[in-house]
Each structure stands twice: as C-alpha cells, then as structure tokens.
Specification:
Strand content: 35-45%
Radius of gyration: 26 Å
Shape: elongated
Distance between the termini: 17 Å
Length: 421
C-alpha cells in the first residue's frame, strides 16, 4: 500500500473567503469556518498545477461529533476526542462533499455557511444546549481536487446496533467514518489505434487536516499530487546525424485508483487490472509530421557535445496512475488478458556523416526496465540516448523532482511508500 497522510484546509463563509493570510480575508460572520487559499506541497512546473485557479473548485468532507456507540444519537461529549478514537462513529456532518470555489479576487466561496461549534450553538448557528466545552472540539477535514468528474466519493462505514446489524433510518444505513475516493482517468481507449489525449487528465490532488481546533484559525489545505508524471527527452551523444519524427507511449494503462482514508493511515490501493479498470491506446508525445522533424545532429562533429531535445519533449509530462510493489503504469500483459505491454516508441533516422540520409524512418519500441518502479506524486523522464552507433533508454527521476515530501529513490522497495507528516 502507498501511504499518504495529507494536510487539509478549512471552510468558508457567507460566500466565504479564502484569505492569503491565516487571520485575514474579507469580513466573515463571527464564528464561521473559513478556508485559507489552497497551497501546493511543492511548486510544480510544465503542465502541472502550482495553484488551484480562480473559478476552480475542490471538495471538502468535514467531521467533528460522533454518534453514541450502537445508536444514531449524537454524543456531544465526543467533540474533544481525537480522530483516531472517534472516526468509526463520526458522520460527515460538518461538510459532506461540499464544493468550495476559488474566486478571482482571492477569497473562496461555498454555499450554506457552517460555523464552528460554540457553547450552546450548532454548525448552523442554531441553539443547541447540549454543546459545551466547544473550544476544545477537534475537527478533521479531507479535501479533493478537482471537484467535478474525477472522483467517486463514498462514506462506506455504517452505524451498527448491539447485534452488529446496520441501523436503518428511513430504510437506509447511517453512513459514518472517513471517505473512500475512487479516482478515474478520463481515457476510454480499447486498442493501440486509440489516440489518447493526455491534456484531458486532471492533475488530481488530495489534502487533509486532522484534529483542528477553532482557536487555530482559518484552515489551509496543502494539496498533494496523486498521479505519476512521465516526460521524455532525446539526447544525441554521437557524431552521427539524428532526426526524430515521433515519440509515443502506448499500451494498456491503469484507469482507476482507490484512496482509502478509513484506517489510521490513508492508503492507495493497488490499481485493479480487471477489464473495466484499464484503458488501451497511444499517447503521442511528439509528432514532427512533415515539416517539424526534430534535428539533433551535432553541427561540429570534430568537437562532440550532446545535442538534446526539449526536456521534456513537447514541454509536457503524461500523467498516469502508478502501480505499487514493483508494478508499472499498467497491468502485466499476456495472451490470456489481451492487454498490450507498455512501450516507448521512437521514429528516427540515424546515419553517419558522408552517407546518404535513409529514405525510411526506423521505428523501435522499448519497455520499462523490470527493476524500475514508478510512484505517485513523482515525475520521471524516459531518456532516449543515442551513443556511438547504439540507442538506449533509461528512466530517471526528473531532476530530483518529487512533487511532495518523500525519501529519495535508492532502489529500496519501501520507498514505494510516500508518507506525509
């Protein structure tokens, strides 16, 4: 399992505000829950987000009070308990899949403003005599981006009676506990002929805040990236001519990833390889067509220096779901499941000085080295190197570019776990 204990943001106010400063923002109703402007764990570059932009939305699920065990009666004395002791009995009563939108002038907004519990007062500001010791209440929040389309959000826990049966209200179970989020890629290809649009993939992110108190002020989520980024660069270390016409990534890829927050640490479940949970096709990373062939020929063969493409070529990384425990970016392909192996494909011409340019493009496909493991929240480069008269491919971490905190990749399998403090 891949661990990800995210950090999370607060709420907002009467079309509430997301202030840049912890105690700032527009004037808010007294006691309202206010969201600070979302942050990113590490600044990102290229096509990846370094901010959730104006008019974009993220979702929030918030908890505070638990039910009395075996009932659906709210236990107002549970507010001061920490998340690990009460999570199995907490409904998402503070926020349940609440949309929060970043506004162009800085503040965020959301409907149906919620308030911190106060002595004698509830979440909507109503009188609730049972609320006491409210300043010591602890709240836990989970957030996900984007709000629309990418995630299915479930609250899978249910309240049980003394016999262990679900307690039903209006014929339905009473849902409690942390969320379970299923992220789904938008691609739908079923064969290598399907051209996949990597720009359609959202930069999926998560965040969480545990055991926050009202006295800590506005909440600010620090979002963490869920996906793996893969870019490509072509290097010519030789004295030969090199033209590149196309670079592609093709195969059968994982389509769904489950992030389970129902236990004490949030885990990424190993992606499913069942037919409905994969897609097949080709990402065209670079296409020179007829008029923009990439020429990586050394202009001075007597003074050899590397000639490189843009890094990454095309200026973009492809965002993908990574497997765990030495899995790749897609399931193992075999004759029984009919899946396609993951391959990097390059179309090129490579010839000696003084020789005629080849009339046809050479097309070669390379698979990932079996010992190389991708992990979430990290960007990689597939480096296609022409050295002498040979051609090699190597996968490396992109300039040490880990999107979020985690140990350096030293080949230890345990580094497949990404842990956030």
């Amino acid at each position: 399992m891949r661990k990800i204990i995210p950090v999370m943001i607060v709420t907002l106010v009467a079309l509430a505000s997301c202030s840049e400063e912890p105690g700032g923002g527009l004037a808010q109703p007294d006691g309202a829950i206010v969201f600070g402007t979302p942050a990113m764990s590490v600044e990102t570059r290229s096509t990846f987000k370094d901010a959730i932009e104006a008019s974009e939305s993220f979702g929030v699920i918030g908890y505070c009070l638990a039910y009395t065990v075996g009932t659906t009666t709210v236990n107002y004395n549970s507010g001061a308990g920490n998340w690990l002791t009460k999570r199995e009995y907490c409904p998402p009563s503070v926020f349940n899949r609440q949309r929060v939108t970043v506004e162009s002038d800085g503040p965020c907004s959301y409907e149906n403003i919620k308030y911190w519990y106060a002595n004698g007062k509830g979440l909507d500001g109503e009188d609730v005599a049972s609320v006491t010791n409210a300043d010591n209440y602890r709240y836990t929040f989970f957030a996900y981006y984007p709000y629309d389309g990418a995630y299915e959000v479930e609250i899978p826990g249910t309240m049980k009676n003394e016999k262990g049966d679900d307690i039903l209200v209006g014929g339905s179970p009473v849902n409690v506990g942390a969320p379970r989020l299923t992220f789904t890629m938008p691609q739908t290809g079923t064969s290598l002929a399907a051209v996949l649009d990597h720009s359609a993939t959202p930069d999926a992110m998560l965040a969480a805040l545990y055991d926050r108190r009202k006295s800590e002020g506005n909440l600010q989520f620090t979002f963490r990236h869920v996906l793996t980024g893969l870019g490509f660069v072509v290097n010519n270390y030789s004295t030969r001519h090199l033209l590149v016409n196309k670079v592609e990534l093709r195969g059968t890829f994982y389509k769904r990833l489950i992030i389970d927050a129902t236990t004490s640490t949030v885990t990424y479940e190993s992606p499913s390889a069942s037919p409905g949970d994969v897609y097949t096709g080709t990402y065209v990373v670079y296409d020179g067509g007829a008029g923009e062939v990439l020429d990586l020929t050394n202009d001075d063969p007597e003074n050899v220096s590397v000639v490189s493409s843009q890094n990454p070529i095309g200026g973009e990384h492809v965002m993908l779901i990574s497997g765990v425990q030495n899995q790749s970016l897609g399931p193992v392909a075999n004759d029984e499941n009919g899946y396609e192996p993951l391959e990097v494909v390059i179309h090129y011409k490579f010839w000696d000085n003084g020789d005629a340019e080849p009339s046809d493009w050479t097309v070669k496909a390379f698979t990932r080295p079996a010992t190389f493991t991708f992990r979430s929240g990290t960007r990689y480069v597939a480096r296609l190197d022409f050295v002498g008269d040979a051609f090699t491919i190597d996968f490396i971490q992109a300039n040490g570019d880990i999107w979020q905190d985690g140990e350096a990749d030293d080949g230890d399998e345990t580094n497949d776990d990404v842990v956030f403090e």
